Amino acid sequence: MNKKPGWFKGIFPALVTPFSAADEVDEVAYRALIRYLLPHVNGVVACGTTGEFSSMTFEEKQQIIRIAVDEVAGRLPVVAGTGCPSTRETLELTRWSKDAGATATLLVAPYYLKPTFNEVYDHYKAVDEIGLPIILYNIPQCAGTHYKWWTAEGMALAFDNVVGIKDSSGDMPFLMALFEKLSGKVGIFCGHDEIAGAAMLAGADGAILASANVIPDIWQEIHQAAQRGDVQFVRRRHREIQILTRIIVRKGSVQAVKEALRMMGVDMGDGRHPIMPGGGFEREDREDLRSQLENLGKIGGVAANIDTPQPADWTLLVGEGFAGPPLSEVAHIDLLIGQAYGPVGRAIDRALGEPRPGHELAIINERPRTLLVPTVTVRTAKARQLVYEEAAAGVKMAIEHAIGQGTLPQERLDGLCLIANVFVHPAASIRRRVHINNYKAMRGAIRKAVEGRPTLRELIDEKHAARHPFRYAP
Predict the structure, then answer these.
(1) Active-site residue 137, yes or no?
(2) Is residue 471 part of a domain?
(3) Which pLDDT score, from 0 to 100, does residue 150 have?
(4) Per the residue annotation, which of 3, 9, 98, 137 is the catalytic one?
(5) Which listed residue, of 209, 364, 386, 472, carries a Cα 20 to 30 Å from 340's Cα?
(6) Are residues 64 and 25 in contact, defined by beta-carbon separation less than 8 angstroms?
(7) pLDDT of 432-474, one tens digit each?
(8) Residue 57 near residue 93, CB atoms below 8 Å
(9) Catalytic residue of the set 61, 166, 251, 448
């Protein structure tokens, strides 16, 4: 019994929902996003998890689904997320979506009260009677209910209108069981970005992904390669996007996707509260995300899509960077950039002439001249190695990166000097993490100093999300 429709294959982005400054659905931006994605994808999902359906009113969900159906205009399938906490509301939205022209429903298990599997089964049975094709949606990290393979198999085979399943659990053994039980009977999609390439090689018909908003073309390349059995291409390309997908999946996918799109010139606003800039998606994540987009050629280098030009006056610039994990190996850098004949250069000359037991200063780079200042007292040989070798190497690597990117212009290097106040935790042990985290922190600090960030707008937007990195309380 094959119920898998011909249209259910390939790459479907889980569309983000743009909200205006007045916290209303931004129809113009939503249509622009769909037009941006259509050339690269096989379908779209409206009101999915990345679309913040759980933060929207019933009427807003209807609005979003209506816009998606209208903008796509029959060119590709439109899958509507219609799952709600109650069966009654789910039935109402699913009936409405069918009448509105949705191709199928992506149906998450009722969430919050964590119904039993028998209750979930009866819920889906009720929706099945509506007659709209159903894609079962397994996302236990949000719904609180993880399908078992026998539960998924039972629902997929028992209900006439179940045509597929999307698994976002990241649980490969569960996904492999689905391939064994359901391949050729219903469509099987991966919804976990970090394993989507492996899933498609293993037999998934496609993927519904948050990151497909950002890199739909790359995901299409991976899907096509998996279809023709080009394992090496999938391995290589997936490795190139792995950091990007990890950031999106693990660090607040809604805000991460929206900030990535903003960097690329496709402004979708910010997440709706309680999601906020600087919350689950932290500022150091933004620097990492930006670097990954640069590496993939999605944005340019210096100040890409950022409305702050390089400074006209290099007398004194201030930047800060923070990077982890783990906690013991976090890096925090306070940075001053200035001219050699200015206050930064004079501060270096004066400091080098003063004894600082336990906080010995070190010139670690000559062009531009860079002074390393340890924040924490250096008491042991191990701490000395971590500060003056590993952290210093990370700082130098960031300087080289900034020069290569043009953030620190070649023509200014002889006249510039830097003071990097470097924090290495007294309990740190993992040398490579100290090295890499200081590279990332210094990379962010240089960019922020040169670009004048955080801007006033960023500070206002993120004031409610500000937290001390070592404390739970604000």
Answers:
(1) yes
(2) no
(3) 87
(4) 137
(5) 386
(6) yes
(7) 999 999 999 999 999 999 999 888 887 887 777 666 666 554 4
(8) no
(9) 166
CA angle at 208 for the pair 205 and 213, rounded to the nearest 5°:
135
- Please give the Cα distance from 388 to 361 (Å, whole number): 9
**Model pLDDT for residues 247-283, shown as the tens digit of each residue:** 999 887 899 999 999 999 999 998 988 887 777 888 7
- Running DSSP on this structure, what letter comes out for residue 16? -
State whether the Cα torsion 92-141-249-204 is positive or negative. Answer: negative
- Compute CA distances 88 → 19, 95, 473, whole Å: 27, 11, 40
| pLDDT higher than 90, residue 284 | no
Domain assignment present for residue 470? The answer is no
Q: How many domains does the chain have?
A: 2
Residues 80 and 191 in one domain: yes
Last residue of a domain, one of 252, 285, 308: 252
In this predicted structure, the answer to whether residue 308 has a pLDDT above a threshold of 80 is: no
List the domain range (segments joined by +) for residue 402: 316-452
> Of 200, 220, 252, which closes a domain?
252
Active site residue 440: no
- What pLDDT, on the 0 to 100 scale, is given for residue 200? 97
CA end-to-end distance (rounded Å), the chain: 57
275, part of any domain:
no
CATH of the domain at 47: 3.20.20.70
Tell me, yes or no, whether 466 lies in a domain. no
